[in-house]
Amino acid sequence: MKIKLKKIPEFLSHIIVENIPLFIIIGILNFFDLGDLRLFLYKVIMPLVIAYTSGAAVEKKYGGITAVIIIGGVLSRYNVDTLLEPVFIGALSGFAIKKYHDFLEKYKFPGFEMLLNNLGVAFISLGLVIILNKVLPFYEGFRTIFYKNIISNLFKTGYLPLYSIIIEPAKVLFMNNFVNHGIFSVLGLSELNEKGKSIFFLLETNPGPGMGLLLAYFFREKEKKKKKEALSNIFIQSIGGIHEVYFPYVLRNLRLILPLILGGMSGIFLFSIFDSGLMGVASPGSIFLITVLTPAQNRLTLLLAVAVSASVTFFLSYIMIRQEDMARDKIKTNESKKLFPDIKTDFAQNKNYNSIYIVCDAGMGSSAMGATFLRRKLEKAGLKDINVGNCSIDKIKSENPDIIIVHRQLLERVKKEVNNAEIVIVDDFLDPKPYDLLVEKTKNYKTIKNPTTQEDKILEHSNIELGLKRIKKEEALKKIGESMIQRGYVEPYYLDSIFEREKISNTYLDNGIAIPHGTFEGKVYIKKTGIVIHQYPYGIDFENGNTAYVLIGIAALEDEHTEIISKIADIVEDEKLAETLTTAIEVEEIYKILCLEDDRA
C-alpha cells in the first residue's frame, strides 16, 4: 500500500515534467496583452494535453486519444480548474482501454483488429463521458470543500517555512522533482487560476540555499582545482537551474542539511511576507527563469528573498565546513574505484556495448550534463558508435540500454525497473573519475568491427523473437533496428536510415510479412550481413490496411542484399510458409525456413 501511494506523486511528477513548456508559456503570457489566449490555454488546452499525457502513460496506443475525447465531453459542460481532474480522467481512460486490449489479446479476432480497436475507443469514450457527466455535479461540491477548507488550512502561509524541513532533505536525496512536480506544482496550478500567481512554485525551486552552500565551499577551499569546480557549479546551479550539482557536497557532510533548511525557511518566510509568487512552473529552477515568471512589481523583493536565503545558508555552511576534510577525499576516491557495488564487479567480456544511459529523477538536469560529459570522453577515445543518452527513471526500461549510470541515492529505484543491464554507481554526476574508468573498460571490451567472413552466420537462433506484444509501427521499427545494432550488424545511425526508407516506400510485402531495411545511402552503416526476425501474433498496423505479423530486419553488404530479398520473396509467395512464420511458437520452425547461411555456403 505504501509503495502504491508513493507512485501517485511520481505519476503526477511525470505528467508535469512532460508538459513544462506549456506551463511556462501560460506564465509568460501574463506579460503581454494576450489574456484571452492565456485563458484559452489554461481552460481548454492544458486539460486536453494533461489528459492526453496521463492516458498515454497508462496505455500508449489509444489511451491518449480516448482521454482527449472524454475530457472534451467533460469540458463542454463543466469548468476544469485543477490539474487533478484531467490527470484522473486520463488515467481512467488509459486503464479502461488497457483492459479492453487485454481482452482482445486473450480472445483473438483475426482480421477484425482495427475495427474492434476503433469501436472500442468510441464506445468506451462515450460511456465514460456519460458516467462522468452524471458524477461531476456531486464531485464539484466536494472539490469546493476540499480546496477551500482542507488544503487552505494544510498549507496556510504562516506554516509554509516549516516545509523546508521536508523539502531540503528530500532534494538532497534526489526527490526534488518528486516533491516539486508531484506536489507543489499541482497545488500551484490550482491556485494560479484564482490569484494569477502562486507561492507554491517557489518552495522547491528557490536557488538561494544551494547557491549559498556552493559559495561557502568556494571561499573555504584552498585547492585551486576545487575552487574552480565550486565556482563552475555555482553558475550551473543558479543560472542553469540544475540544483543536483550541490547534492554531493551535502551527502559527504550531512550536517550541512541544517544550513540548507534554515536558508530555505528564511526565503519562504520572506516570500510570504512580500506576497511573492510565480505565474507558471519554473523548471529548471534557474534564477533567470524565476525572475521572468515573477510579476514585475514583485521582482525586487523576490530577488531580496533569494539573496537572504543564500546568505543564511552561506554563513552557517562556512562555519561548519572544515578546511581540510581528508576523510571526505578518501571516501570519494574509494567510491570512484568501486563502480559496481552490490551488483557486478566487472563487465561481461562476451557482450557488445552499444548504448549507455545516464539516469536521474526527471531525466533533464544532472543526467543531461553527465551524458554530454561522457559523450565527449567516448568520442576522444574513438568510441563514436556508442549511443549515449539520458532519461528519467520511469523511462529507462523502454530505452533498454546496455549500461546505466545512476547516482547511489537512486540505485534501488533503478534496480526495480531493469535487471539486464550493467549498472555504474556514482556519487557525483560531474565527477570525471567514474567516466574515465568506464571509458577504459568499454574500450577493453567493446567488440571491434570485423569484415564479414564465410563463417559468419546471417541468422542466429537468438535473432528470432516470438510472441511480442502489439505496439505501434514506429516502435516496432525502432525495436528491430535496435536489435540489429545490438547484434553488431549495423551502426546506430542505420536506425535513421530504416525510418527514412519507410517514408519513401512502405516495406510491407504480403501475407503478413514486412522487411524493414535502410536506404541505399544507409548501406555505409552496415557492419556485416545479417537479419533479425520479430514476430507479433496480434499484428502491427503497417498502414494502407495492411497488418504485419512478422518483421524481418535486413542488413546486407554488397550483392548479398539481392540473395536475401530473393529468399524472402519465395517465402512470401508461399502462403503455407508465410503462415508458418506468423503462427510459429518455436524458434526452430522459423530458423529452418530462413536458414540463409546454408544457401550462401
TrEMBL record:
GO terms for molecular function: kinase activity; protein-N(PI)-phosphohistidine-mannitol phosphotransferase system transmembrane transporter activity; protein-phosphocysteine-sugar phosphotransferase activity. The chain crosses the membrane at residues 12-31, 37-55, 119-139, 199-219, 256-282, 302-321. One of its GO terms (biological process) is phosphoenolpyruvate-dependent sugar phosphotransferase system. Signal peptide: none annotated. Residues 457-597 form the PTS EIIA type-2 domain. GO terms for cellular component: plasma membrane. Pfam families: PTS_EIIA_2, PTS_IIB. Keywords: Kinase, Membrane, Phosphoprotein, Phosphotransferase system, Sugar transport, Transferase, Transmembrane, Transmembrane helix, Transport. Residues 354-450 form the PTS EIIB type-2 domain. This is Phosphoenolpyruvate-dependent sugar phosphotransferase system EIIA 2. The lineage of its organism: Bacteria, Fusobacteriati, Fusobacteriota, Fusobacteriia, Fusobacteriales.
